[in-house]
Amino acid sequence: MLKNKYLDPESNPLTWRMRLDKRPVWLHEYQSKNGYFALRKAITCLSKLDIVELINKSRLRGRGGGGFLTGLKWSMMIKHQSILKVNYLICNADEMEPGTYKDRLLMERLPHLLLEGILIAGYALSVSVAYIFLRYEYMIAAKYLNFAISELRSAGLLGKNILNTEFSLDIFLHTGAGRYICGEETALINALEGKRAVPRSKPPFPAQSGLWGKPTCINNVETLCNIPGIIEYGVSWYKNLSNKYSNDSGTKLMGFSGRVKNPGVWELPFGITAREILEDYARGMCDGLYLKAWQPGGASTDFLIPNHLDTPMDFHSISIIGSRFGTGMAIAIDNTVNMISLMRNLEEFFARESCGWCTPCREGLPWIVKLLISLEKNNGDPGDIEILEHLCNLLGPGKTFCAHAPGAIEPLQSALKYFRSEFEAGIHLNNLNVSNKISTIQII
């Protein structure tokens, strides 16, 4: 994971404390590396509004994929705080996006960095109870987080009157049951309440009415891990971490998976190009292979092609070329991969993970899978590609209850755009005319 043997705390705030032997950094070692200094500074030197204002000015964006401004989310939380002062903080650690494993790295190697971020956020938002909603399969992370939480309690840094102040906070770890939809914040809240994990209608937003009807802030693991550095070093430092040509602030855990020579995740400045990550960090494609396509931020982002590799890796730049930055964990597709087979595999996953709450997603994704299976077997009908394109429109943004289906069709619509000839090759020209099938879908 680490490219350089020695990392600078002021240029690699997320990873500099990590051990080279890959063992977790426990409380004593974390404190010896300036751990919980930012917490002490926040509680003893700054007001709650000061902290929220610092996060606002830092332009920290959510690291879970959406890129929503953290300071704005915190400000909404303060605006709707309960009269009874019962507020909740949830750390979204349900990292189930295919090709994404950055939060796992932080939780398994630096559990106390996450806990410090939660404590500072809890103090700023007047929260007394925080939950970490963890992906079920992350069993090692669960073990390490539970141990780190017990260390904090024993040290008096968790529970009542933290650091001899009036601030009290407890943190509980909750493992999910293994559903992709729990990454959607309102479905996560329903799951945490013991209900079926389906998204809620918004408004009201969680900041107004979230967990058990109380104001609730939900932040991603990596987002919260950025908080201590901002408190310790300040806004100007944080903004200067990124490339001067980037509109985004700070560093980001980015990576490449697929058939590259050195797949992994690295802490890098916003604005670094995808080519630099692929060639300098992932060391290029495996021998005998070349890059055919890539996804910049997980399996639910639009495919890009090699011509796009010189694009800066940040939210704005990636959106301009027709995709999403997402989680920043890129996936390399090599020249041996059949795009129909790849899309069939992805859409089977998204269809299986649909909560089934709304008709377009529940019915549309299995239909897409059925069409792709036919095309994969070179038994597609004339008109199948047009039906796929129409389904991409029917399942697009604003036409389903949540963002699951729009995310599922992003790779499909871009695969049809860049690799249409492969889909056309899957059509069996001797099949019967399907004009009736096309006219039927137009009526829907």
From TrEMBL:
Pfam families tied to this protein: Complex1_51K, NADH_4Fe-4S
SUPFAM superfamilies, alphabetized: Nqo1 FMN-binding domain-like, Nqo1 middle domain-like, Nqo1C-terminal domain-like
NAD recorded as keyword: yes
Keywords recorded for this protein, A-Z: 4Fe-4S, Flavoprotein, FMN, Iron, Iron-sulfur, Membrane, Metal-binding, NAD, Quinone, Translocase, Transmembrane, Transmembrane helix
PROSITE patterns, sorted: COMPLEX1_51K_2
Molecular function as annotated in GO: 4 iron, 4 sulfur cluster binding; FMN binding; metal ion binding; NAD binding; NADH dehydrogenase (ubiquinone) activity; quinone binding
Parts of the chain that traverse the membrane: 113-134
Residues in NADH-ubiquinone oxidoreductase 51kDa subunit iron-sulphur binding domain copies: 340-385
Catalytic function, reaction form: a quinone + NADH + 5 H(+)(in) = a quinol + NAD(+) + 4 H(+)(out)
InterPro entries: NADH-UbQ_OxRdtase_51kDa_CS (IPR001949), NADH-UbQ_OxRdtase_suF (IPR011537), Nuo51_FMN-bd (IPR011538), Nuo51_FMN-bd_sf (IPR037225), Nuop51_4Fe4S-bd (IPR019575), Nuop51_4Fe4S-bd_sf (IPR037207)
Enzyme Commission designation: 7.1.1.-
Stored SMART domains: NADH_4Fe-4S
Cofactor(s) needed by this chain: FMN; [4Fe-4S] cluster
Entry annotated with the keyword Nucleotidyltransferase: no
Gene3D superfamilies hit by this protein: 3.10.20.600, NADH-ubiquinone oxidoreductase 51kDa subunit, NADH-ubiquinone oxidoreductase 51kDa subunit, iron-sulphur binding domain
Subunit description: Composed of 13 different subunits. Subunits NuoCD, E, F, and G constitute the peripheral sector of the complex.
Family named by the database record: Belongs to the complex I 51 kDa subunit family.
Role noted for this protein: NDH-1 shuttles electrons from NADH, via FMN and iron-sulfur (Fe-S) centers, to quinones in the respiratory chain.
Name this protein carries in UniProt: NADH-quinone oxidoreductase subunit F
Originating organism: Blochmanniella vafra (strain BVAF)
Organism lineage string: Bacteria, Pseudomonadati, Pseudomonadota, Gammaproteobacteria, Enterobacterales
Gene name linked to the record: nuoF
